[in-house]
Amino acid sequence: MELRQLLTFRMVATTLSFSRTAQTLNYVQSSVTAQMQALEEELGVRLFDRLGKRIALTDAGKRFLPYAEKILTLSDEARLAVTDGTVPSGTLTISAPETLCIYRLPRLLRQFHDRFPQVKLIFKPEPFGDMKRMVSDGVIDVAFIIDEPQRSTALVIEPLVADPLLILVSADHRLVQLPVVQAKDFDGEPLLLTEAGCSYRILFERALNEQGVHPTTNLEFSSVEAIKQCVMASMGIAFLPAITVEHEIAQGRMVALHWPDHLFQVQTQVLWHKEKWLSPALDAFLSVTREVMGEQAMAPVRV
């Protein structure tokens, strides 16, 4: 089993394409195919199903992927440990939910790349529930979450920015006329919800349930941007971080309702494994993260 085979396997597992993997790694496609066949022969299992022109990871391939990630990470750490560690280099694998990918991380990633171009960043957007497990398993180096304050015995979890949450409707919604709303006002209203397991969906549903309100019509979306479009189309009520709707509220296309009994807030947090070696690259990334997020914390969202 060779490191180059594992690198190629990881790229094929990411792209699900031999041709795109060949282009990315500067191989001819036959070399990618040969490497994967050799790896499968050595392991004695099929890692990929060939479905015509498409490929998919087999169950064995899915089980093998986190181990390949760990081996490649250890390889990077070993190389850095015996070379000049003063200049950050190597690879960092980062994950975050869609909300943070769009509204908090672009400036951070740009600044880090400008300062440390020798560090390769691999970005993997993941569902809320998967990220802590992936950090614990060593599949990713750093994850960002937006949630209530978290604790862990295995992970370092550092709060960065407080994120208020808002109850949102279209500008012509009937509830806009009310100076304050109560839980009973949401009875019969369609809710436009983020995916199951999303931290702020859990907060909102818990608050409604505590007040005895159980909406019968819920629409679930995997995309915050899709929810925003549906709110503006008067399809229902949403519950989202203020940072995601700042511009729409300023433009009068969306209104935040005032529910004085419940003032909701979550935090943007960064996490990594507490036993993970802080390589120069990871240490630099965390430093830039604190700097950029600190600036964002000093510039509260206007809603």
UniProtKB/TrEMBL annotation:
<dbReference type="InterPro" id="IPR005119">
    <property type="entry name" value="LysR_subst-bd"/>
</dbReference>
<keyword id="KW-0805">Transcription regulation</keyword>
<comment type="similarity">
    <text>Belongs to the LysR transcriptional regulatory family.</text>
</comment>
<dbReference type="InterPro" id="IPR036390">
    <property type="entry name" value="WH_DNA-bd_sf"/>
</dbReference>
<dbReference type="GO" id="GO:0000976">
    <property type="term" value="F:transcription cis-regulatory region binding"/>
</dbReference>
<dbReference type="Pfam" id="PF00126">
    <property type="entry name" value="HTH_1"/>
</dbReference>
<dbReference type="Pfam" id="PF03466">
    <property type="entry name" value="LysR_substrate"/>
</dbReference>
<protein>
    <submittedName>
        <fullName>LysR family transcriptional regulator</fullName>
    </submittedName>
</protein>
<keyword id="KW-0804">Transcription</keyword>
<keyword id="KW-0238">DNA-binding</keyword>
<dbReference type="InterPro" id="IPR036388">
    <property type="entry name" value="WH-like_DNA-bd_sf"/>
</dbReference>
<dbReference type="GO" id="GO:0003700">
    <property type="term" value="F:DNA-binding transcription factor activity"/>
</dbReference>
<dbReference type="InterPro" id="IPR000847">
    <property type="entry name" value="LysR_HTH_N"/>
</dbReference>
<feature type="domain" description="HTH lysR-type">
    <location>
        <begin position="1"/>
        <end position="58"/>
    </location>
</feature>
